[in-house]
Design brief:
There is one protein chain. This protein is of the alpha+beta class. It has one domain: B-lactam Antibiotic, Isopenicillin N Synthase, Chain (Jelly Rolls). 27% of the residues lie in helices and 20% in strands. The strands form 3 sheets. The chain has an 8-stranded mixed beta sheet with strand order 2-3-11-8-13-6-5-4. The chain has a 5-stranded mixed beta sheet with strand order 1-10-9-12-7, with no helix packed on it. Helix 3 packs across helix 5. The radius of gyration is 20 Å and the shape is globular. The model has no long low-confidence stretch (mean pLDDT 94). The protein binds N-oxalylglycine and nickel (II) ion (NI). One of its GO terms (molecular function) is oxidoreductase activity, acting on paired donors, with incorporation or reduction of molecular oxygen.
């Protein structure tokens, strides 16, 4: 199945809307009353677990075990955690954020050269989902493929700002290394061989892509969302949020809690493919983004994914008589068509993959 080649409606850049000085947002962005954010929640930033990764590769096995158990606990209780001492240079993180902020500040004609289409989503975009009339989110984004190398098309990466491609390649390379470290910890925490999940994702042929989110100031933040509730369809996500403004909210039961970013930390979360592979021992947790009228916000979401052509299903090693496989096998290419067609829809997709019993 292929996605249609064009968007169903003319694309409006949220940044242009925001800059135009409107005081009321267009109706496509107004969420139904039950989906609107309660902005009182913004004032209640919470500290999700912060895990110091410096000992994850320690020569001392007891220090490694200790770090892995903290990761496990965070995965169980939150599905989200922040990591510090992750091995990525802070200066590089800062450069990556700055480069992308500069990109979004470029004149519209320049950015339009990268306008994306629903076929691959690569490039400059302003909507997720191709159904006519769907509610839209208050963000613009840039999406690109990094791995496998066969899907990497640097021609589609911005040439401006000048060092953009270079910084992007360096940053992505570091994030792949961090993802590999985390994947090992996730494997061992399931009682599997260290390289189990990496192999299940396709070994050398794993996928990785990046979505840079730009959330402009919004005159009526109480009526809309920067990104609607969703779980990430892929393997694991490493998010670099802006440090001076919150916006990411994570579901905890019936509540949405706002993540308070720790300076120089990444926010890590489990995606649907790890929920499937782990037969739901890991849960991908729903999250969303709220916006505000005073400050814009930028975030870099790096997605580490299975190769698109491999069938992903619960690991045989985790299937027991009293723990039957919960999900039917599916390739990630097929899986991701759902969010690309319908837009963010909470956890409805991974739920729909439940095999009939
Ligand atoms: C995403 C996402 C959160 C954020 O891009 O999938 O959840 O804070 N982003 O921008
Ligand atoms: Ni997400």
């Amino acid at each position: 199945m292929n996605l249609q080649p064009t968007w169903p409606e003319p694309i409006v850049r949220v940044q242009s809307l925001s800059n135009s000085g409107i005081t009321a947002i267009p109706k496509q962005y107004i969420k139904s009353s039950s989906s609107r954010p309660s902005l009182a929640q913004l004032a209640r930033d919470v500290h999700i677990p912060v895990v110091d990764l410096s000992n994850l590769v320690s020569a001392d096995p007891s220090l490694r075990d200790e770090t892995r158990s903290l990761v496990l606990l965070a995965c169980r209780e939150w599905g989200f955690f922040q990591v510090v001492n992750h091995g990525v240079e802070h200066a590089l993180m800062g450069r990556a954020r700055e480069i992308w902020r500069e990109f979004f500040y470029l004149p519209m004609e320049v950015k339009q050269c990268y306008a994306n289409s629903p076929v691959t989503y690569e490039g400059y975009g302003s909507r997720l989902g191709v159904e006519k009339g769907i509610k839209l989110d208050w963000n613009d984004y840039f999406f690109l493929h990094y791995l496998p190398v066969s899907l990497r098309d640097e021609k589609k990466w911005p040439t401006l700002p000048h060092s953009c491609r270079e910084v992007l390649a360096e940053y992505s390379n570091e994030l792949v290394k961090l993802s590999e470290k985390l994947m090992k910890a996730f494997s061992v925490n399931l009682g599997l061989e260290e390289d189990y999940l990496q192999k299940a994702f396709g070994g050398e042929e794993v996928g990785a892509c990046m979505r840079v989110n730009f959330y402009p100031k919004c005159p009526q933040p109480e009526l809309t969302l920067g990104l609607s509730p969703h779980s990430d369809p892929g393997g694991l996500t490493i998010l670099l949020p802006d440090s001076h403004v919150s916006g990411l909210q994570v579901r905890q039961g019936d509540d949405w809690v706002t993540v308070k970013p720790v300076p120089n930390a990444f926010v890590v979360n489990v995606g649907d493919q790890l929920q499937v592979l782990s037969n739901a021992r890991y849960k991908s947790v729903e999250h969303r983004v709220i916006v505000n009228s005073a400050k814009e916000r930028l975030s870099l979401a790096f997605f580490y994914n299975p190769n698109g052509n491999i069938l992903i299903e619960p690991a045989k090693e985790l299937i027991k008589e009293d723990q039957p496989p919960l999900y039917a096998p599916m390739t990630f290419n097929d899986y991701r068509l759902f969010i690309r067609t319908r837009g963010p829809c909470g956890k409805s997709q991974v739920e729909s993959l439940k095999s009939p019993r």
